[in-house]
Amino acid sequence: MKPSTVASRPRGTEDVLPEAAVSWRRVERIAADIAARYGFGEIRTPSFEYSELVHHVGETTDVVQKETYDFTDRGGRALTLRPEGTAPVVRACLEGGLFARGFPVKVYYVTLSAFRYERPQAGRLREHHQFGCEVFGAPGPAADAELMALMAAFLAEAGIRRASARLNSIGCPACRPAYREALVGYYASRADALCGDCRRRLEQNPLRLLDCKVDRDAALGAPHALDHLCADCSAHLAELRALLEAAGVPYSIDHLLVRGFDYYTRTVFEFVHGGIGAQAALGGGGRYDGLVEALGGPPTPAAGFALGLERLLLALEQEGAVAEPDAPCQLFVAGPAARALPLALEARRAGLRADFDPLGRSLKAQFRHADRLGARFVAVPEAGGGPAVTLRDMEAKTQQEVVHDALVSAVRGALAARGG
Ligand SMILES: [Zn+2]
Ligand SMILES: [Zn+2]
Predict the structure, then answer these.
(1) 287 alpha carbon to ligand 1 midpoint, in Å?
(2) How far is the CA of 212 from the centre of ligand 2 (A)?
(3) 290 and 357 together in one domain
(4) Among all ligands shown, which has an atom nearest to the Cα of 212?
(5) Least confident of 274-283, 362-371, 403-412
(6) What is the largest CA-CA distance in the chain?
């Protein structure tokens, strides 16, 4: 029988229920907090863009060739759900005139939804979410170093202990053609043994041969990009390594590290986690000095990273890092809604986490409900509309009589006295 498409979510998507949402809020808060400390301003862009923008920047990448959600809207416009954040952010910065205000421009996004039509697996969904940072206008390696330091600090604050950084340089338009040629020369004699994707990459995007999971052995013997860098690219990398050393950001050189997008230049980096299995990358980034110009802007150096939040949450689970559950109810006001609701509202206005029973159940059932909520105090207004309220401390199992007007201050006083 066909599964119901009314009662199930689309393949490759996830719901976040209240118990899981606390973990999301926690990492979102840490991301926004750390980005602000590093001097980044938040940017939000639409979930879909004109297809031309998305396809313009990555004609030879797998994501853009096979994995985008493209559709035509009712007005006949060709649109694409964004597969990543960088190109839309560049578009938004250009359109919003941010680059005209002086450099550097530093922006971040958190919980940016990204859409890729691929086979769903652990931590890789068709709709997933990213935290990312971009720096525009800084040509030197200080921006690269700052971004790697930020990513390391974020992972550490989130509670990831088993993460490590990998670094490589893929050169620039001056030196990459020679490296590309060296790669093609190396792989051409082995083409028959390569997977179908790689035979196609050999023509279109030979750098991507290096991160093929199938042809790993062939990649291990391939020429290194670092041996083909021009003097400027070598100096950039040497200075970046010195800065990382000075900043105390540990990393290792990974000759097989390349990025999936064509606009990357020089620096590429990735943070990997020991616990997620084959899909070990938490996220990564690098420099993409050619992108702004490719999108119609003035030549503008740029660097950035993006990190998958679903994968991060998986890694945090494996590390045993758990988020604090939502704080329980502090005051439950029992009784008929006509008395309980105004009292609960008053307590909420005063800043207490307060609740009542909207179902109008018996007092006994309401006490059971208060227990389920973990309510610290239960208030029972006296019957007949009088001013007395019985306030029961559910933990100490004691109770006292207070007048209606003194309820909130009585609860506050009791919570303060017990550190609650
Ligand atoms: Zn170069
Ligand atoms: Zn391959």
Answers:
(1) 12
(2) 5
(3) no
(4) 2
(5) 274-283
(6) 93
